[in-house]
Amino acid sequence: MNTEYMRRMSGPELDEYAALIGAGAPRSTSVEGKIEEIERARAHRVTVRAIGLELTVTKKSLSDKRVTDLLAKPDRTDRETEEMMRTMLGDEQFGLIVEAATDEDGTVDNAAVALAFAKVMTSDELKTS
């Protein structure tokens, strides 16, 4: 969420937002302190092992509306799944997945890419973060 708009929120409203995103109740009583705690929670990173890679995912990227909209889409295409993964992991990490899934002859193993996606989305690390 845009920090400038968070500064316009009341303390109780920031508490509600923190609870909604799973950050718990901020300990701080000041608006700036609450915002810092919320930003720290959103930046929380977890590492997920998938197809021989250590992938880093942030809470912020998982709650990106572009990601959640595509996750909820029942007829999501492979391109949209790739877009979602790129948004969630970033171009560099997605590139590593494609590199790991590419055979010596240049064939990109779609099953390996799908496995990486499934490992990220079902990881215990994300469930408990």
Describe the structure.
The chain has helices at 3-6, 11-20, 31-42, 59-62, 65-72, 78-89, 91-101, 110-121, 124-127, and strands at 45-50, 53-58. It has a two-stranded antiparallel ribbon. It is mostly helical and 129 residues long. The chain is elongated, with a radius of gyration of 17 Å. α2 packs parallel to α3, α5 (65-72) packs antiparallel against α6 (78-89) and α7 crosses α8. The protein is built from nine helices and two strands, in the order αααββαααααα. Helix content is 60%, strand content 9%.
Instruction: Give the beta-strand count.
Output: 2
The ordered H/E elements are HHHEEHHHHHH
Rg from alpha-carbon coordinates: 17 Å
Mass-distribution shape: elongated
Biggest sheet descriptor: 2 strands, antiparallel
**Which class do the helix and strand fractions yield?**
mainly alpha
Short structural description:
By secondary structure, this protein is mainly alpha-helical. Helix content is 60%, strand content 9%. The longest helix is centred in the N-terminal third of the chain and has 12 residues, at 31-42.
SSE diagram, text form:
Elements: H1 3-6, H2 11-20, H3 31-42, E1 45-50, E2 53-58, H4 59-62, H5 65-72, H6 78-89, H7 91-101, H8 110-121, H9 124-127
Antiparallel strand pairs: 1-2
Helix pairs in contact: 2-3, 5-6, 6-7, 7-8
Features:
129 residues, mainly alpha, two-stranded antiparallel sheet, 2 strands
